[in-house]
Amino acid sequence: MNMLSRFTANCVLQSQHKTVFNVLPIICGQVRSKTKEVEKPKPGLGIQYRRIVHFKDKYTIEPLKITHLAGRDPVTGRVVAKGIGGGIKQKYHWIKWERDGPTEGAPQEERVIQIMDDGCRTAKIALVGVGDELKYILATENMKAGDLIRTSKFIPRIPVRPNEGDAYPLGALPVGTRIHNLEKNPGFPFHFIHAAGTYGTILRKFDDKVVVQLPSKREFAFDRTCMATVGRLSNINHNKEHIGSAQRNRELGNRPRSGLWQRKDGRFGRKIRKLPPMSVIPPPSPKAVEPIKLTLVL
């Protein structure tokens, strides 16, 4: 009986120890672990990892403060976009993405007060005044201070003859007009064509739709009541600008690559090797002699 009792006691102790040892790593992992499981975000999903703009409750032309992210996720602090970093400190000018005008009668006139550069976008911006209101809009190619621009939501029977900077519905503009700041749906903020030097073209009209060719050369049919601004956006030579130096590239907010990879002689790069020695091209080999087949039956 003593042997049997000792055997059962040992079995009970071993089972208790196993349960304790199985639980201990879980407890230690919860207490001593310094890592935290986070879901790393992916770039290219409509999230900007360059800056956070601190907007106010009401629209204002006062420059807004910016928090630079340098390619890092604002929550986890991990680098998501590697090519972003540094750059000259900028203030953000709040663009008003709506052009409100009368639905009947004469169009509303607005005066351009100033044309200025904005470090947070490629195209130039214009300070516009209408009544007691001041607002920023995107400047067109030939816009200058003192110009009068018109805004209307009325669609006449005969297309209007617009000037550069005017805002009209697509149904009021003639075919072939260059436009930018195009609404995706009626009543929504301007969604398309914001980059410097770009423009869309009105191709044709059918039913209640207007076909517009975007800068990507793709054609889309929009509702005829969608608002658009006439003209080509300013700073047309932006894509031809020569940076010229690494310091200038850093001022623009672009972080260089690591420097470990080089095309020809660097780490994992293409090596420069000696050419192989000269080889003589041999003459073609003679054709093999065809065997003679005898058909005579012996």
UniProtKB/TrEMBL annotation:
<dbReference type="GO" id="GO:0003723">
    <property type="term" value="F:RNA binding"/>
</dbReference>
<dbReference type="GO" id="GO:0003735">
    <property type="term" value="F:structural constituent of ribosome"/>
</dbReference>
<comment type="similarity">
    <text>Belongs to the universal ribosomal protein uL2 family.</text>
</comment>
<feature type="domain" description="Large ribosomal subunit protein uL2 RNA-binding">
    <location>
        <begin position="71"/>
        <end position="151"/>
    </location>
</feature>
<dbReference type="GO" id="GO:0005762">
    <property type="term" value="C:mitochondrial large ribosomal subunit"/>
</dbReference>
<dbReference type="InterPro" id="IPR008991">
    <property type="entry name" value="Translation_prot_SH3-like_sf"/>
</dbReference>
<dbReference type="InterPro" id="IPR022666">
    <property type="entry name" value="Ribosomal_uL2_RNA-bd_dom"/>
</dbReference>
<dbReference type="InterPro" id="IPR022669">
    <property type="entry name" value="Ribosomal_uL2_C"/>
</dbReference>
<feature type="domain" description="Large ribosomal subunit protein uL2 C-terminal">
    <location>
        <begin position="162"/>
        <end position="284"/>
    </location>
</feature>
<dbReference type="InterPro" id="IPR002171">
    <property type="entry name" value="Ribosomal_uL2"/>
</dbReference>
<dbReference type="Pfam" id="PF00181">
    <property type="entry name" value="Ribosomal_L2_N"/>
</dbReference>
<dbReference type="Pfam" id="PF03947">
    <property type="entry name" value="Ribosomal_L2_C"/>
</dbReference>
<protein>
    <recommendedName>
        <fullName>39S ribosomal protein L2, mitochondrial</fullName>
    </recommendedName>
</protein>
<dbReference type="InterPro" id="IPR014722">
    <property type="entry name" value="Rib_uL2_dom2"/>
</dbReference>
<dbReference type="InterPro" id="IPR012340">
    <property type="entry name" value="NA-bd_OB-fold"/>
</dbReference>
<keyword id="KW-0689">Ribosomal protein</keyword>
<keyword id="KW-0687">Ribonucleoprotein</keyword>
<dbReference type="GO" id="GO:0032543">
    <property type="term" value="P:mitochondrial translation"/>
</dbReference>
